[in-house]
Amino acid sequence: MAEDGEEKLLATVQHIVQTLGSSDTMTEDILKVFSNYDGRFSLDKLYAARTAAAAAASGGGGGAGGIGGDHSMPVSPPLPPPPAAAAAAAAAVSGAGGRPPVTSMERTVRTLDRQISQFVAMDRLIWADSADADAFLEAIDDLIGTVQELDAAGTNRALLDRADELLSRCMARLEDEFRALIERPDDAAPVVPGGFGSDGSDDDEDFGGGDGYGDEPIPIAKPVTDYDVVIDALSPGSIANVHQIAKRMVDAGFGRECAEAYAAARRSFVDESVARLGVRPRTAEEVHASQWEELEFDIARWIPAFNMVFRILIPSERRLCDRVFDGLAPFGDLAFIAAVRTQALQLISFGDAISSSSRAPERLFRVVDMYEAVRDILPDLDPVFSDPYSAALRAEVSAMCNTLGSSIKGIFMELENLIRRDPARVAATGGAIHPITRYVMNYLRAACGSRQTLEEVMEGDVGANGGAPVAVDPDRPTSSLAVHIAWIMDVLHKNLDIKSKIYRDPSLASIFLMNNGKYIIQKVNDSELGVLLGDEWIKQMTTRVRRWSMDYQRTTWGKVTSVLQTGSPGIGGLPAKAMQQKLRMFNTYFEEIYAAQSEWVIADDQLKVDIRAAVEDSVMPVYASLINRLKSSPETGRDLYIKYTPEDVVAHIQHLFEGAAK
Amino acid sequence: MPVTDYQGSSSSPFSFGRSLLSLRRDPAAMPSGEEADLEAFQRHVAATLAELLPGGDAAGGDAAAAAAAAVGAEEFLSVAWIRRLLEAFVICQEEFRVVVAQARRRGALPAAAEKMVAEFHERAVKALDVCNAARDGVDQVRRWERLADIAASVLRAPGEIHEGQLRRARKALSDLSVLLVDDTAASGSGGVASFLSSHRNRSFGRARASPSRSAVAGAAASASSSHFRSLSWSMSRTWSAARQLQAIGAGLAAPRAHEAGLAAPVYSMGCVLHLAAWALVAAVPCPDRATALQAHHLPAAPPRAAFPWAPPLLTLQERLAEEGKRKDRRHSCGLLKEIHSLEKSTQKLAEAIDAAPIPLFGDRETDVREAAAELTAVCEAMRDGLEPLERQVREVFHRIVRSRVDGLDSSMHNAD
Questions:
Q1: What family does the database annotate (chain B) (predicted)?
Q2: Contact between A469 and A375 (Cβ < 8 Å)
Q3: Does residue B315 lie within any of the structural domains?
Q4: Which tens digits make up the pLDDT trace of A320-341?
Q5: Do A168 and B168 touch (CB under 8 A)?
Q6: Residues of B numbered 295-334 whose beta carbons fall under 8 angstroms of chain A's beta carbons: which are they?
């Protein structure tokens, strides 16, 4: 028997080598896919790990006690004879059912014992030889049937004991084979042609998924944007074998053991696959203590890893599990969740940790990315986590989606706080655009890139009921996001208003407000902010800017023009002396204004042109008329000294708001 | 037990109680609304904790505490009790939120107060990891329960117990022992696990049906010993419950006399948080749990006289420490009453199986059946309890997260 087995093993190995050619095992191919994803994990390392594992396995293997010779039956003590009535009833049932007489059952059990003991004593995988496997399964089926019959008859306790004991030995062996086939599928022979080969699923074109895995192409690492991939960790042939075992174990009432063994066997593959994606467990505390740059890096890894795991790895595990436990429902569900739970939770924990960490506004964009990744997979999870065992995991994912959503909301609120707390100590020189205005406007503009998501989050209750996000009309200016952004603009406006007060010169305060206002309008107009804030808001803002500009005209040039007023030219008119006095005052004012305001800033060129024009419009007519009247006045003679010709004044006005640098 | 009575603090060696009282008489120092809020908060924390006291401890105390203890008559450190403890934490935290919100509504908090609130949140964040570890721990216990339940239910099948069933039960117990040994190794103790593992070597070894001679089969056999490995924690490998608890309790000191306002509530919440985290770690398997149980890791005891909640909190701490020191619990994988029962019943069943000759009859069979029935009952109770416990642990987790989301830590962003 042993020699025979060895020959078969050799033949099998040769067959495997032939069919596989130079390619590695399926599992390795898949790990390669994951490794390729993250370049830090080289195949060399993988091989080193596997070699080490194999060495450890063969080193530790010799110690396990062989059970082969331990199947001698215990000596049965005489059982008390069953009560006559019960025996009669049992006999009647047995007779009615047409069951074979007990003596033939005894013969059956004895034969099965002989057969099965050989298999159980086998010191290599039974599934290394498909003929052995088939024979073993057949014997087990007979045994299960026999046990059921004996149990139903209830007349031969001793024989039932013996059959039952035999069954438990079969199951222990089956469990070992089961685990070995899952963990090292390539140790077993490919399924014989015509066997339980086709797996009934034809949609896995990605891997050319026919039956018989020998000539199957190696799975290729697809671009990570395409998650429409299924991993076939086991060949259809292996799955068929494993399914056959699972079926027997469940039939014999060992379903729970089978589920535990399955989960334990798959878990290491799942663990390794996730590790290969380059994400490592991070505690909430670590996340809190980390620099944002570091976390950004982690998030950049986390998002594709999360997609890989929840879009490919876990659905693939689900499919494998469904096939192995096809028709054995609750055990498959139990096995599946036990296999993937830890790794899924580890990824979720990172999301939770990010949600609960700092709300610094610059975090918005990465957190939005995370949120979107999670939100987008939610609907796809339903078929994967449909059973009651995985409901809790499904709930964890949508809870994470929720917390990320609230976190985004919180970060947005934080922007408000940031503006509110921005101190008014330092004024922008020359009334220029304040850094806070630039920051907030550019921030909001960038945030509009994620407008849909922000709308969703602001509407609240995202994923709260585990459902799809609430549909919102993106162009509704009354949406929560629009309202919130309008509110932020309000807060910004108030903050700028406070900042404007630190300029001693009210004219400069007006210039400052005007500059910032104009900048805000520009940023709003050339982005989606315009849609969100609405035309009415823009109109109001434009009005404000115009009012500030008028304030400026009034505060700076009001007294200048009033000095130049000479009354209506026709009636009387001022004496030349008074007019000369006015001119001197004008010169003083004008020089003061020019000295200060040529260093002021108007950032927007058009606005600068407009403001200068407005100044000209208000000053030049009165100034020119004063000069004309002085010139034409008989009282002033040749000694009339005009420091600034109207052309000079215009030229000076054109040099206002050039900024300190110029 | 002076749960709510700290009027007698004039005779106490702690000056804080006195100064609190004197502050109270000085309306200028603290507006009456705020004072009332803060005092009510302290009293609520005290009452909430007093409700958790085991029956015996509350008996000598005031009537309210005794009555409360009688209402929740479940056993100390049972799943139900742990759930009530977590609930108590949640209640306290909610009240704390209200206290802070009200203080803010009265006007911007002084920077020092904001800093204190932020510090509490830093502490609470550390408890998030404890929640995650406890969730893994609960899942681990669930695995134990599944294996124990296989063993128990096999032996409870109608009809006589025969070799096949015993073999199956032994195998389940053997797998369970591997898990327990792993977890005790992780948490650094011996106890039932080491009993079971030696038991396994004696009697389960031969029960294994694995072939062993050739390399192929050898690999299968060695895989089988490692395959029932403990679950990989979703925490990083180096995470330690003991270190985490120390971090939660670090710098937790009673406010000095001149620190009025939010100092006392913040301190109270820190203490309640530490207690809840400590009890959770004590109750369920966690990495490096054994060290965490040692009482010398506790933060400085709150002055009894100054805080009405200090006496019940200290009593609870003492009880937890005592429980951890008990001979039969010292090497346990978790102080949770249900885990203890599982360990005891599993051991009893293993012994009954061990002593049982085949075929079983008479007293021996009765012993095995009784042990199996007991273990089945324990498993049932555990199944019923673990689900809600896990949910509650998640609830605490999300509450802590939410309290940050809601802007309680609005001054936080300056921290980084």
A1: Belongs to the ROH1 family.
A2: yes
A3: yes
A4: 999 999 999 889 999 999 999 9
A5: yes
A6: none
